[in-house]
Amino acid sequence: MVSFFVDAVREGWYTFTLRERRNIAFYILGIMIYKFGLEAFNGSIVALATNRYDYDAMRTKTPAKTFQRVGLMVGLNQACQCIGSILIAPLIRRFPSRIVLSSAVLVFALLSALLLIIDASTGGTFAPASFRDHHPDHDFHYYGRYNTDGMIPVYCIAGIAYGMVELMRRIIPRDIVGGNVKKLRHLDALVHIFYEVSGTSGAFCTALALIPFFGNNYSFLITPICFASAAIVWFFLTDETPPSRDTPVRERQTPYIKAVTVGFWLFVESIWTGARIIFTSRKFVWLVPGYSVALYAHRYLENAVAPAIARRYLGNAAWSQIIVGGSNLGELLGALFVILFTNLVTTPVPWLRLDAIMLLATWYLPFWRPVGQVSAAWMAAATFIPISFGWAAGDVSLAAYIQATLARVESKTQNVSALGAVMAFLYSTYIILYAITSPVLGSYIDRVYAETGGSENGGNIYAAIQNVASVQFTIISGLVFISTFVPRGSLAFNPKMLYNENLDGETGLQRVSSDDLRK
């Protein structure tokens, strides 16, 4: 099995040209550094907010609104990512991708340092050495003395840069290898493997070393350093895509007018172009449940369900990163299988169906009664592996399909690329969905906890987890599974092609009209 995998990776690696291999090496190195810092940042912030809101409720003798506020914080962060993702579509037609990506990560590095500065300036310190082996459940006196709600705007602003980076890393593979779907599958899977190796190690390192040693108010000290390092590495990427020769009239306006009118116009045009391409074509409409809704389920599992289980089931918010580490390991294995079976499974359809089935594994959670020990966190992490395995395999193969298909389609719109607009719309759809549901479901979790006794009388969230995880994911499972039968040629168990379209070769861009897209 190992030799088979090594041979598959080696064969895939040598399908790239020397120039492509150079760019891939820089891109993967940068994304591994970025992902390690990102896991430390997101894991620490969610655990920090969870603990602070519980601590505030205990000190003020009021019902906890922990997951309502954490859901609101993460949801608004996702909404701000929407702005960042939309800004990418016009920016990639005006500036080199490496400049846009490096600049976004540098801004993210500066914003991630803000909470460190705020905590230090309000009296925050590292966690006491006596807390490292066993942290008291409700003692967080070493945190900075600032209003916990102040974390929300800081985390939101960071979301703009986060959204830009996340969308850019879905577009850059096309810039590196062009529209060859076989190369894109290899590259996306290869990137995903190293991305999740770094993510898994980052999650475990955060939960087992950084948070116990520094406390989750300082455990993301490494994040600004990692982000700045990633920006430097990505700066060495070479640009393969020549700039557009078309110069819209709006770009020749004065700087002030251009900043106001073009910014607003391109914001609307990005959304409109992506929506038009998707909703006027059977070929693309299934991507909304297949990509956006599936991505929402995966992120809700990691960002909402895992912290709720860690804090309310196990009593330690930091252990959510152990659970997320298991999820990242599942993503790693999913990407590996895409590489291993890239010639056998040539469309994303079988992987998406597997993703839909794996979501049903969450039905054990409402009936699980773990003890508050770290071994239970490892058990939860193990059960998250197959769930994230299915999602990652579907995400990698579907991303390659989208990139290859839209590499052959160029909208008549001059100001935004078809790929950028579609990815912006899909990513924004997921973000808006998360931003709306996360605080609402978080409030429901808090209400169930309070009604069953709260922190004073042994409250639990078993009924809430049944609805927000098991029932919700069953509905999403059905949507994703049904969507896989929408593309023409998808009725087979393992279709060889969709729409009889061979995506394995390089193809020049085609200009298509709205009528063409409906076919």
Automatic annotation (TrEMBL):
A GO cellular component annotation in the UniProt record: plasma membrane
Domain of life per record: Eukaryota
Lipid bilayer topology: Multi-pass membrane protein
Subcellular location: Cell membrane
Key word Transmembrane helix present: yes
GO molecular function (one): transmembrane transporter activity
Transmembrane segments: 24-50, 70-92, 99-118, 152-172, 193-214, 220-238, 259-278, 284-301, 322-345, 380-404, 416-437
Swiss-Prot/TrEMBL keywords: Cell membrane, Membrane, Transmembrane, Transmembrane helix
This protein's name: Major facilitator superfamily domain-containing protein
Organism: Aspergillus bertholletiae
Phylogenetic placement of the source organism: Eukaryota, Fungi, Dikarya, Ascomycota, Pezizomycotina
